[in-house]
Batch of 3 targets.
Target 1
Amino acid sequence: MEITAALSFALVAGLVMTSPGPKWVLIAKTVPTSGKNAGFANLGGYIASLYIHGLLSAFGLSVILVQSAQAFFIVKMLGAAYLIWIGTKALWSAKDTSSASNDIQPAKNRRGLRRAFQEGFLTSLLSPKVSLFYLAVFPQFIDQKEDAVSAAFILLTIHAVLNLIWFSTMIILLSRLTIVAQGSGFQRWLKVITGIVFIGFGIKLAALTRAGT
């Protein structure tokens, strides 16, 4: 693959990556309440899902999601239901937080790393928009003379590294706010905002069509 194609893809992927989405909100909720390691577990799950989406796209299997209205609808609704479920849980948790008399100490209320990984993994895996992105972008940067799977893997790795750098920086910065985040007031409002945003993303995903967002 030519370096110009790789750099061009990195620019496009970087612009998409820096647009706020569910993964942003998930990490912003996880780090203050469960710690830096849980945030990196979120990120690990998200990156793992990227490779699944990317390799399915490279092998053409995710084309089914584009060509089959029924398959696309099922995956879309599963993803929407999952996002709405996370949002509802956050709102319910905020209700519990508001009724507590003492500040919550995140260090004593950590979600397990496995759970954090699963949340990051499923938040991305159940979004057909990721496969649609790869299906739309990969052909723009893969030469017909190249092996499509190998070239797609290179582009996928570039995307994964960009996400690793960007969100690792975000996690580290958020972890610096630990003292502020220990207050129950901060956590309550964070959970309320998280819940509303995730439910909003779920509704938006449910309205997604195969032609676009």
Target 2
Amino acid sequence: MAETRKVYLDHSATTPVDRRVMEAMLPYLSEKFGNASSVHSFGQEARAAVDRARREVAALIGARANEVVFVSGGTEANNLAIRGVTELALAKAAKAKNGHVITSAIEHSSVRGLADDLEKRGWQVTRLPVYDDGVVRVEDVREALQPDTLLISIMLANNEIGTLQPIAEIGALVREERAKGRQLWLHTDAVQAAGRVAIDVEKLGCDLLSLSAHKLYAPKGSGALFVRRGVRLSPQILGGHQERERRAGTENVSSIVAFGAAARFAREEMELRSQHDSALRDHFEQGVRERLEQIIFNGACARRLPHLSNISFRFIEGEGLLISLDLQGIAVSTGSACSSGTLEPSPVIRALGHTEELARGAIRFSFGKDNSEEDVDYTLTALVRVVEKLRRLSPLNKVSSLQPV
């Protein structure tokens, strides 16, 4: 019997902590334990470390250090951005008047949840389609604009299929509208894109941008929101002056330090990591094409992240395939980790126009800097074996009477 190999292919859910990042943060869990808000030397040492990390995170996205607000992760960053803008607008209005928000049909569950909540509070929300390639059309954004549109929130790269959205073009549209004197802000969730592709907030033209440390080989529990200078937000956590009074609470110094180190390594090594990840992904996808039929590569016809491959396997439940691969030592995902446990098929795959069957049969493979070609070959062998077995057992299996997808 062949030896089981441990292969982690779920880097879009989270990444292992880089040893160099761990080494950077460890002193701030031991001897450098000061509160960054304290005025004595222990506190000032911690403050200096937070400031260094802020500069590193800012450099990753082409921002100024004072435009970076540290939070607990991407979900909180999205909440601060969307709630912060909409609640402040209501507070400033002469009369309580809800407005209009534009988003897309494939946003992360935190943004989808916020959009649903805004609707319950009386806001109008437009969810733009993405068509079969998984990409928002700029012309649809333009057509969706209304006189009371306050915020556009569209992710930079999708977390399930990896498609890159035209944020720079949408940013140009927003600037065009603001030049006419209207108040309109652009937020983008860049959690999946950061460290994978180059980001420059000036070129994107966004006002708010969300980041998460644990997608960058840093620990969970730290994230950031880019807030362009001049953009005001209603804080969501009150009780202190931290983060320029935009996010109260004692700073998580060790995790922030780790975030800064991870951001620096991501910026310095981005090109090499991208080449490595895309080579593994392409090798994997070629192997799947050669060995299996009745499959669909979701989002593969558009510009996408270099490390991610999402495939729908006909006549198979994704959960069954995931568990079977896990028994072979291979970790993959049926979609967003933040949506795991739900019985509903992926709304992202459904938004591509696919059937419920294809949505339920979708698996996300996401590669990382420590994966090897041997990992891919092992995965291909196990995948073919498992897919063939599950199809033989599936009551939906009609492969012999159908043409390949």
Target 3
Amino acid sequence: MQWPEAVMMRLGDSLPPDDLPRQFANRNEMEATLRQLFPQAPGGLSPIQGGRRAAETALAAIDPLAYGRSRNHLGGAVTLLSPYIRHGVLSLAEVRETVFTWLERSKQPPAAAQKLINELGWRDYWQRLWRQLGDGIWEDREPLKTGHPPESYAAALPVDLLEARTGLACMDGFVQELEATGWLHNHARMWLASYVVHWRRVRWQAGARWFLRYLLDGDPASNNLSWQWVASSFSSKPYLFNRENLERFSSGRFCCDCALAGTGCPFDASYDELHSRLFKAVASPRGPH
């Protein structure tokens, strides 16, 4: 890569030819430099602040009890620690010990932190599985349970989805948030992944690559195996949601403004109806996965 002359003059001879600049006077200078280096990259800087100081602030603010009660809601008390864990700014052990300290100080029973500790355990499990499987996490771990052969799924994401113009306020909103912030609530990730794989019939690998392109907390272990869980190549059944589920956990913020909410919402049906529409010869389990 050839560095712009202005960048090289500012950095002097200290910058290795295959490295990126790391020191900036302020955030605006960083954004200007990145725009110069990567003119094709869409959007601006994520509002998520990096660094140890920001990580410690987020860690100190966690409330495991509130997390357990509200984590499935888009406005719930999620920790926002995942980008810092992903890049090694925080360790899982450090987060775990902070949770244990919170339990001791708050005099809460261990069950108050169970959901958060469970999530730390899942993340550790994905990492261990990645070390075992290597590039195998890009392959179906099990046959799909959708009744459709793998070759019936498209290899590429549809353009209307990538451009956030599906007409579905929820999906377009999730795409815009993903690109603008580099982060999505876990429930939004599940809904979007389910829409991609089951409604649009696209291979989960295409969606996994897409997420890794944008997510600040994206790592192949958690990302790929979660996509496989949705797709049913690493779970007992495909993950589905319906409009009732989405409205409940998003507080209805998308459906009230969606042009398709009246008559064209593809999610406005019971789980039995959705299974019969989307899958072939597959028994319909009740409710979301």
